[in-house]
Design goal:
Blueprint: E1 7-11, H1 25-32, E2 38-42, H2 50-60, E3 66-69, H3 79-85, E4 88-91, H4 96-106, H5 108-118, E5 121-125, H6 127-130, E6 133-138, E7 145-148, E8 153-158, H7 167-176, E9 183-186, E10 190-195, E11 198-204, E12 211-216, E13 222-227, E14 230-231
Length: 239
């Protein structure tokens, strides 16, 4: 029996099907490897906002898939069944601290780990990208700060590294001080692809989007190095 490939694809942003915008959607669907995949959306980080749910369905209407969503605030009775049926679990952006607290209270951390072990592709952008790591840099309280996450992937992750000026100096100091684990920093439209807990590829939709590794030196300083990224865009998904 072939070994199940466990995949997590954390993204800074770029999970979109808007025409003429670079998109990670074709890459994620190809990684899933199933025609007409079942895509389950978790809008927890945006407090299950109706606008984010409507936006998800509008986005998925442009591609061949079977979309559904799980509004955790409503605690649907078929929550376990929805997760078990998903080929791709996509997590939207928003408040990472709330997302982690609510998922753990509802037992979704256990259900998502089981889905990952079965071969369901886990992905998401912003809060939905960093939530899979041991810890992360978040702006859930306004200013950048540390947050403990699910621990599926070792180390840390930060997103919007090129679009939020406060993030880079904070992450560098936090890693140097041991407040945040060594890990990855993603520009917008950049991402990572893990097979199990091993980095399979760093990803970028545009040549100027970068992925970095931020580590603590023996002297208690930080070291930031660029991780060569595979260019997977720009992509356009036709309506």
């Amino acid at each position: 029996m072939p070994e199940v490939l466990r995949q997590i694809i954390p993204l800074g942003c770029g999970f979109t099907t808007e025409p003429d915008k670079p998109s990670f959607v074709p890459y994620v669907f190809a990684a899933c490897g199933k025609p007409n995949p079942r895509v389950l959306f978790l809008p927890t980080a945006s407090a299950d906002s109706e606008s984010s749910i409507a936006g998800f369905y509008e986005m998925m209407a442009r591609v061949e898939c079977r979309p559904s969503y799980l509004a955790l605030y409503r605690q649907p009775k078929d929550m376990v069944e929805r997760i078990e049926k998903a080929d791709i679990i996509y997590v939207g952006g928003g408040n990472t601290r709330n997302l982690i607290a609510l998922w753990k209270a509802a037992g979704l951390d256990v259900l998502f780990r089981a889905a990952w072990e079965r071969g369901t592709v886990l992905t998401g952008q912003s809060a939905g990208g960093i939530c899979w790591f041991d810890d992360a840099q978040t702006t859930s309280t306004g200013e950048p700060g540390p947050v403990k996450c699910l621990g599926f992937l070792p180390g840390s992750c930060s997103t919007h590294y090129d679009s939020n000026a406060a993030r880079r100096p904070h992450l560098q100091k936090a890693v140097a001080d041991g407040i945040i684990s060594p890990g990855y920093a993603l520009d917008d439209n950049a991402g990572l692809h893990f097979h199990g807990t091993r980095l399979h590829a760093a990803l970028a939709l545009e040549p100027h989007r970068k992925v970095y590794r931020v580590e603590r030196t023996a002297e208690g300083a930080y070291r930031e190095t660029e991780v060569p990224a595979q260019l997977v865009g720009p992509e356009s998904v036709k309506a």
